[in-house]
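Exercise 7. Given the components listed, write out the predicted structure of the assembled complex. Treat all entries as one system.
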Amino acid sequence: MSSKDDEYDYLFKVVLIGDSGVGKSNLLSRFTRNEFNLESKSTIGVEFATRSIQVDGKTIKAQIWDTAGQERYRAITAAYYRGAVGALLVYDIAKHLTYENVERWLRELRDHADQNIVIMLVGNKSDLRHLRAVLTEEAKSFAERNGLSFIETSALDSTNVDMAFQNILTEIYRIVSQKQIRDPPEGDVIRPERVEPINIQPSTTSDGVRKQCCQ
Amino acid sequence: MESEHHEKSSFWKKNVKSVAGRPSPKRDAKDVKKNPGSTSFQDFQASVSDAWDLDDDEFCVISGLENTKISKKVAHSAALNVLNSHRNTTESDSSLDKKSSKKTNNGPETNKTSRIPGPGRPKPILRINSDQESVENRLERFQILLENSTDLHELCGLSWSGVPAKVRGITWRLLSGYLPMNMERRNQVLERKRKDYWSLVEKYYYVEHDETNRDIQHQINIDVPRMNPSIPLFQQKTVQVMFERILFIWSIRHPASGYVQGINDLVTPFYIVFLQEYLKDDEPFEKCFVDQLSEEQRRIVEADSFWCLSKFLDSIQDNYVFAQIGIQKKVLQLEELIKRVDETLHKHLKEHNVSYLQFSFRWLNNLLTRELPLRCTIRLWDTYLAENDCFATFQLYVCAAFLLYWKDQLMQQHDFQGLLMLLQNLPTQAWTSSEISLMVAEAYKLKVIFADAPNHLLSNNSSDN
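Answer.
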């Protein structure tokens, strides 16, 4: 229990959401294990992994929940939004429909997640340049309009994957540390009541992050 | 949230839609009226017990109720009748088992360890030791049973502890209720069902789909290619298209659930078993090239997989309807069960904030196919299919036995992350049928312990409602 892995200053729960097949599980495995599978099995229900990163000399442990993309699973997966302080909303840059559905996912977050949850829009599969169906600029301005941070990633060639997680975790950290809310290290799960007091000012914080990552 | 689900699901069921290949609900209602004498569900059940073999493929399809208004009271009493008749059968079955076990154990040619009568007389350790020596013996007993007009009950008893690969195909067809017990009708039924499947494909698969069906097809097309990335067989386009057709036709015939991610994995065991009937004994299915089969053979594998899957899923369809209530219920029951049989483990999980839904959802949704190597899944399904209609409940005890199996390793984990990572990636890669035999024996033991206390699973149900 006292292993290095278990020592952290902050524990943040982050969910991965988005349509089926956009690469959520591969983003997770790339970030937590540096692994990628061209054909990875569909996620059933939810799956879980963690990784710790350093921000300002503090150890931040990210507890990441990967969810099934099919609509049928919503009733189950919605339970996993509880206590989440961040969400990576993923679409596939080569499949326009997955981008169109982003609005539905935002509604879902509004309905089920904490209202202060930090959301990052992630256009995955940026390696598929020749198949691009969603323009970077289009997604970027959509994100701006909706107060989301934005980044394009490729779990296949690793582009921006660490950056995406790093950015959202940093953003959450800034908000939390500003408010001087510390999660007691012995807790394994962030409890919703500890999360509620966090207030996010989208205009300032998400702008800051956007500048770092969307180029 | 609970009421929201109810609203949504009832709204959804009322959504009247014609279902592919299914007689219209109106016609069904008329048929029922023709039988004014039937008063109980048992009567009805008895009167139609052969319907499957004759010309109907429907079992307990929720959407069949679309146009019928059924009062809660009637539904409740019908359900009770089913449960009672079921319980009676199970009771008489087990008493029968006791008798037959006594008899057979003294029988002349009896190999005590391999002759495990009735659904599961667990003697796992003995059986494992004698696995090798009893292989031929077992095969012979299967062959004798299969070649004569078969007694389903006896076949279930024999199959429960594993079916030899050579006779697995025909045994599974019989256990699924796809193939009639009556020898004389078998060929005729097979021929007709296969033809039926292919006319469904022609009529509904190769046509322009409406939006709902396009969504279904889209989801299936995303999932099928990534089912078993490490097995070359599943990378073949021919195989993938076969799966896509099976799943699509199943989905449009079961609109109350439609295709749900994970159901694709449930086709696999049937597909492999029926495919193996056309492979040489030592030919590994993993590398078999399906295009080398004749078209007729491929059509048989596909149609038979479809019908057996359909039958198999009937008893667990509530797992896949809106909000997956069947699974949610079973998760609660699993928790209740573990709390009773192993409080230490239960407390350990709870202390570290592990909720049963987090790990057992996938177990139940995919019937452990994701947790076990394929060869073990197939062995497990020998037992599932032998459990027949009791399989839905039995599956719960199997999950409990599976969890209990890992107790020592779980107790060594002292945080949420460690527990969940272990539960998500249980090291079963080296498992063989021995571990499955042990697990189902343990499950059987749990079932027997709690068979005398049938209310033990109800406490959560009642608090749930």
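Discussion: The interface with chain B takes residues 1, 6, 20-21, 37-50, 63, 68-70, 72-73, 75-76, 79, 188-189 of chain A (CB under 8 Å). The mean pLDDT of chain A is 85.
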